[in-house]
């Protein structure tokens, strides 16, 4: 059970030492004690290379119990190496993201400091636009109030015209009734006069007849 002149047990011990050094290096990187993570990646790469050798060697063990035991050990080394690699990848991703955000903030501050007059001009334009909007809104309110006043005046005039029309109709109706009464009175007066004249004529005829009869 040898690979490149080393036994499976020796290769396994080398892999375990590299795992310990990789965990320590990862902690130092995460705490900022180690600036570069390349050395940690190199250790992980060596562990993966040793895993390939151990995977070939444990398969050649004749005893099944020993073969199963070494299989679990070798797979555990591979799993730990993969877990350390994932942790290092996540750290590098977060670190790269922080660096990108810091760079963007620095660029934004540089633009603000370098283009302060441009920013102030933008603010002035925005303020003027808001003032124009407020002025337009005030003018619209005034126009709306004037329109409402005109409509109210027209409505009042229409009501007054309707009232005058009704009064005119009432007057006309009253005049019509008065004319009818006057015509009735005149007709009654004429009838009374005819009755009076007829009575006078009958009286004269009666007196004349009475005188003739007495003779």
By helix and strand content, what is the structural category? mainly alpha
Strand order of the largest sheet: 1-2
Overall CATH class of the domain at 2-114: Mainly Alpha
> How far from one another are the termini?
196 Å
Unreliable runs, pLDDT <50, ≥5 residues?
none
What sequence of helices (H) and strands (E) makes up the elements? EEHHHH
Specify the helix fraction band.
over 70%
CATH topology-level fold name of the domain at 2-114: Methane Monooxygenase Hydroxylase, Chain G, domain 1
β-strand number = 2
What's the pLDDT, averaged over the residues?
Answer: 76
Instruction: Based on the coordinates given, report the CATH architecture of the domain at 2-114.
Output: Up-down Bundle
Oligomer classification: single chain
**Strand content bin:** under 5%
Fold and architecture overview:
There is one protein chain. This protein has helices at 8-30, 38-58, 64-114, 116-214; strands at 2-3, 6-7. By secondary structure, the chain is mostly helical. It has a domain at 2-114: Methane Monooxygenase Hydroxylase, Chain G, domain 1, CATH 1.20.58. Helix 1 runs antiparallel to helix 2 (38-58) and helix 1 packs parallel to helix 3 (64-114). The mean pLDDT is 76. One of its GO terms (cellular component) is endoplasmic reticulum membrane. GO terms for molecular function: SNAP receptor activity; SNARE binding. Belongs to the GOSR2 family.
